[in-house]
Amino acid sequence: MAYIRSQGCTIWRQDDEASPANEYVQIGQVVSIDGPTGSQGTIDVTHLSSTARESIASLPDFGTVSLGVIWDPVTAAVQHDELWDDFNAGNVVQYQIRLSNSPASLMTFSATITEHPISIAVDDKVGATITLKCTGSVVLS
């Protein structure tokens, strides 16, 4: 059985201002990635001739992806300023989670940032937990 280490997993943001255009740029200083938190409901299709409850799958909801980061809005290379701008503008952006296996397994999805709280505490680093709400499918490749 193969195991994939979490150390070395990364998340990337598609940047339409990058050169070449629409290139993925790694989001830096990420300490955790949680999700996607997908779920799929059911639709009741029980009818009067049914002998038990019957259901079919509804559309999947790929939920959210949360990023824990050591927040740095000044260093352009870590992309935190871009995430802040996306949050304020309500942009839908393409993201890619790259696992540490070789070749890397990819989870590609579009999302909008729905939460961007900053954490500041005594004797700690400035952090943020950024929540991305997936829109559409998450493609595993």
Short description:
With 141 residues, the chain is mostly beta strands.
Walkthrough of the structure:
This protein has one helix at 80-89; strands at 10-15, 23-26, 30-34, 39-44, 55-61, 64-70, 92-98, 106-115, 118-119, 127-140. With 141 residues, it is mainly beta. The chain has a single domain (10-140), classed as Factor Xa Inhibitor. Strands 1, 2, 3, 6, 7, 8, 9 and 10 form an eight-stranded antiparallel sheet that branches. Strands 4-5 form a two-stranded antiparallel sheet. Strand 9 (118-119) and strand 10 (127-140) form a beta hairpin. The protein starts with 9 loop residues before the first strand and ends with a strand. 18% of the residues are buried.
How would a textbook summarize the main sheet? 8 strands, antiparallel
What's the order of the H and E elements?
EEEEEEHEEEE
| Oligomeric grouping of the chains | single chain
User: What is the third-level CATH name, the topology?
Assistant: Factor Xa Inhibitor
The portion of residues assigned to helices is under 10%
Number of helices: 1
Could you say which structural class the secondary elements and strand pairing correspond to?
mainly beta
What is the overall pLDDT average?
A: 94
Count of beta strands = 10
Q: Separation of termini? A: 19 Å
